[in-house]
Design brief:
- The protein has a four-stranded mixed sheet with strand order 1-4-5-8. Strands 2-3-7-6 form a four-stranded antiparallel sheet, covered by helices on one side. A two-stranded antiparallel sheet has the order 9-10.
- The protein is globular, with a radius of gyration of 21 Å.
- With 397 residues, the chain is of the alpha+beta class.
- It contains ten helices and ten strands.
- It has helices at 8-35, 40-48, 67-80, 82-102, 105-116, 232-268, 280-309, 314-339, 350-362, 367-379; strands spanning 122-125, 141-145, 148-159, 166-172, 182-188, 194-198, 210-221, 225-226, 270-271, 274-275.
- The chain has three domains: 8-121, Acyl-CoA dehydrogenase/oxidase, N-terminal domain (Butyryl-Coa Dehydrogenase, subunit A, domain 1, Orthogonal Bundle), CATH 1.10.540.10; 123-230, Butyryl-CoA Dehydrogenase, subunit A, domain 2 (Beta Barrel), CATH 2.40.110; 233-379, Butyryl-CoA Dehydrogenase, subunit A, domain 3 (Up-down Bundle).
- The structure holds coenzyme a persulfide.
- Residues 126-127, 133, 135-136, 157, 179, 233-234, 237-238, 240-241, 314, 363-365, 369, 373, 387 line the site of coenzyme a persulfide.
Length: 397
Amino acid sequence: MIDFSLSAEQLELQSMVRKFTKAEISPFMQQWDEDHHFDLGVVNKLADLGLMGVCIPEQYGGAGMDYNALAIVCEELEYGDTAYRTAVSVHTGLNSMTLLQWGSEEQKEQYLKPQAEGKKVAAFGLTEPNAGSDAGALQTRAIKDGDSYILNGAKIWISMADYADNFLIFATVDPDKKHRGITAFIVEREFPGVTTRPIKGKLGIHGGNTGEVILEDVRVPAANRLGEEGEGFKIAMSALDNGRFTVAAGATGLTRACLDASVKYAHERHTFGVEIGKHQLVQQMIAKMEAGYQTSQLLVYRAGWLKNQGVRNTRETSLAKWISSDIAFESASDAIQVHGAYGYSNEYPVERYMRNAKALVIYEGTREIHTVMQAEYALGYRQDRPLNKMLPAWNGQ
Ligand code: COS
């Protein structure tokens, strides 16, 4: 049976987050973007509404909803701005869901629960100055010392670096082992030797925080190792299966924002004696946004449906991320075109949408990485096998 309807609970969630975005994000966003201001108050309000752990089971402090509920949250938030969806992506998608999948009961109690309750903010530290797409080449070192590890290295392009309480940090215990030496650690900001600093001069997401995380002789208890030594690359990739899902879901929201802004403007603006929506070349751009929005949403919900079943979805998630982020960028570019010269100024939000959309095409796997992955799946060079620890299926109603 195929069911395309949202449940009553999902519809309620959608309406709640839509209202939240309309009241708490959209009215302020142009100014925040101009001022490069990230508002932690928004995250605290999201936490109060249970939205920082929407798909984490109730026993670990979450709202216990399904994985497509997370997609709904991401779509609605990114309709307001990419910054707040990104906060949820790193906190829930990349960090908390990874603790749910790979953590011990003690780690879930100590770290997952306060994160899902929104009492602690979490981020994800994989990328390094010399290891982006080639994540297996990371150089941050972890050296075992008694009952702890000493971490040294630097992470870059870390969303929420300056606000996170907890980081999931990937380091190698043996560089000769390449990706099989990579190991995951839960690192608290409070651990001596952890410092962060913001990255300036970004093209977009001016209203969000992106930074560096520097680790200097950081002593991490062995109890904070997530999974086994050498299991970190798999953990990072499985985290990306969830992070990419949230990016794809956010991209649908951005595309919808482009569509709505363009439709509104197409009714308001008149040229050659008619509103511009009557011109077929404007209609073509609007039709493409509509088709792109529907396509993205179908790909996202299919990936979410697979997550709900507890099966591997790397292939489907990668496809959703690739296509939805490309569509968001093209939609934003077309939305500017529909607005003409006005679209080129920050009097309208569409120039912000385009600057933000470019990030989606780059982070959590560039367009090129996903293109290659899809080709490899099609050619039979890449296959998805079940993992020893899968993201738990959703068993609720
Ligand atoms: N979940 C769990 N394990 C996974 C996995 C996943 N989604 N994807 C791969 N693995 C495992 C593989 O099974 C393989 O295990 P073995 O060593 O036991 O065989 C191992 O990880 C290596 O995987 P693979 O052979 O696919 O690695 P490749 O080097 O071919 O490709 C790519 C890796 C390029 C796909 C990967 O490095 C990648 O996704 N890079 C982009 C990184 C990224 O998105 N960075 C953004 C960070 S957040 S801004």
